[in-house]
Amino acid sequence: MKSIAVQVGSVTVGGSAPISIQTMWKRPLLKVDESLIAEVNRLQALGCDILRFAVPDMETADLLGELASRVSIPLVADIHFDYRLALRCLDYPIAKIRINPGNIGARWKVEEVVGKAKDRGVPIRIGVNHGSLPKKFQDLSDPAEALLAAAEEEIEILESLSFRTIIVSMKSSDTESTVEANRRFAKEYSYPLHIGITEAGPLIPGIVRSTLALSELLKEGIGSTIRISLSDSPETEILTAKELLTALGLRKGGIRIISCPRCGRSGFDVQGFLKVVGEKLQQDQRNLTIAVMGCVVNGPGESRHADLGITGSGDKVVIFKKGKIVQTVRPEEAVEAFLKEFRSL
Amino acid sequence: MKSIAVQVGSVTVGGSAPISIQTMWKRPLLKVDESLIAEVNRLQALGCDILRFAVPDMETADLLGELASRVSIPLVADIHFDYRLALRCLDYPIAKIRINPGNIGARWKVEEVVGKAKDRGVPIRIGVNHGSLPKKFQDLSDPAEALLAAAEEEIEILESLSFRTIIVSMKSSDTESTVEANRRFAKEYSYPLHIGITEAGPLIPGIVRSTLALSELLKEGIGSTIRISLSDSPETEILTAKELLTALGLRKGGIRIISCPRCGRSGFDVQGFLKVVGEKLQQDQRNLTIAVMGCVVNGPGESRHADLGITGSGDKVVIFKKGKIVQTVRPEEAVEAFLKEFRSL
């Protein structure tokens, strides 16, 4: 079943919109200055569509509000327990609130928050996490069922107030129950799903486990927006999400990098070169394949199939364009020569 | 069809053996000393089962031979074109030769290499790469068919000399044709498959693309040994392979880390903590779940389900064991307190 479309600031989530990429700010928000704005804009340039901030207190709510008026990326306020924080955020151009109405307390508090969100046209994401389930769901033997039941209870509260611009997430650090809960939800509900594996772990296990679980859901057409949770930087979360969507054919454009792992034959520092040119390639939206190779065994072959290729060969570096050698330069000239050819593609 | 078992030094590849993990040495081999031996042993301790070296010249062949007599991990010599390098490596306790007989040249050279490998009981891996296919296969419209045809031609050469301790790999930087070639091969042949995506790229795209492609094959029971090719360190290749096999239920034991991505609520430097304790956890073979969490929203919940958990809480750090708080310490005492509890599990 196709989900309904929910507007998150300038980004549509669900319906026939492309799958959007989210990450979360990882530090306390202490002041809004040019350097913060530059960092946020950089995440957007890397491919982040929606950016979320934890709002643990009123100062943060005000700062987030200020930031929201100074950047174009939709910002989300992540709130636990305190309805006043949600009300304060709704004074500002916040694009979405993540709050579980079941955690707010008395009914009149829920009504105030939901009423104000409706007035302002701000959607609410219900975010159910297996690590913080309400007590009564914690000991259900089927963890997928526990996630789903907790989400359903939250949805009922919002629906009872005729609030329907809802996005839902059900996350666990266990991939199987996350996949299963989302699968069951998608069969029954038309609210867009925000999918992710929570607390997926450090960089490597986190990417592997998120890729395995989210690819299962995405291949079944489940998931309108994704967040890769890694104990690593927001940049790595965005790049992982981009790569996953691209590899599954769900995202168009962007540079595909073919690069060799290096071995004892390698005459060219592939990893060092990629460190220097990486961000330029990651920010580019053209649909191109770039081969960065260390030696002449597979280098020329891979470069032949790429739009632009660079390969070490003895003490020289050879640049290929659409399969033809266009430059042979010294290693210290490689970055500049490569970027010149890259721009001209 | 179950593959035959081929012995690679002390490691069995194929048959009913567990799927083994390989990586490749990334620097030229210039001398064999204690520091090199320590590095190789460290890769083995991390989970590497088989280690491959490029052998571009006679000096490297001799050094690899010396190394092979001083470490217990099976070493593989990767040779292109020059039959004399293969003969020299076979003078030493090398566990496997990777060479394509079709690249050696005259028939008598092939006979010498294959004869000596048979005498020494050393298996040969045929490694077909889409970036270095023989000319006649390069322009086949179906790249999976091209990989398969090139592998078949190599197999025929070895079989014509009654050599059957063969391992085969067919790799491309394109995930689809790699998956398809290996699938077709597994239907027709019983030689064990070494699977991997070649030139998969830098860390993040490389892990995502390798996970997507190899998980498809592994779920179908295809692949006896895996190598993740990343433009990154051998350690990252090993950890990715371990995580992939563990997540698919194909590898037993080892620490599972649940760790939070941090946000503005986080009071504990999860990433910094993991950097310090990471390698200890990665080398441990016990089957345990460890939760490393930043705050009290999901921290206690996740820690409750883990064998050992650590969570920031205000300016303190709380350690949970099997769901019960066992220590509350200052952040600067966290590593020592955690490792003490970890050892005693």
Outline of the structure:
The structure is a homodimer of 345-residue chains. With 345 residues, the first copy, chain A, is of the alpha/beta class. Helix content of chain A is 41%, strand content 21%.
Structural notes for this entry:
The structure is a homodimer of 345-residue chains. By secondary structure, chain A is an alpha/beta fold. Chain A folds into 2 domains: 5-247, Dihydropteroate synthase-like (TIM Barrel), CATH 3.20.20; 255-344, Sulfite Reductase Hemoprotein, domain 1 (2-Layer Sandwich), CATH 3.30.413.10. Helix content of chain A is 41%, strand content 21%. Chain A has helices at residues 34-46, 58-68, 83-89, 107-120, 135-138, 143-160, 175-188, 203-219, 234-247, 270-283, 299-305, 334-343; strands at residues 5-8, 11-14, 20-24, 50-54, 75-78, 96-98, 124-129, 166-171, 194-195, 225-227, 254-259, 287-293, 308-313, 316-321, 324-329. In chain A, the strands form 3 sheets. An 8-stranded parallel beta sheet of chain A has the order 8-7-6-5-4-3-10-9. In chain A, strand 1 (5-8) and strand 2 (11-14) form a beta hairpin. Chains A and B meet through strand 4, helix 8, helix 9, strand 11 and helix 10 of A and strand 4, helix 8, helix 9, strand 11 and helix 10 of B.
Low-pLDDT runs of 5+ residues of chain A are none
**Structural class determined from secondary elements of chain A:** alpha/beta
Q: What is the number of E strands of chain A?
A: 15
Share of helix of chain A, binned: 40-55%
The proportion of residues in beta strands of chain A is 15-25%
CATH superfamily of the largest domain in chain A, please?
Dihydropteroate synthase-like
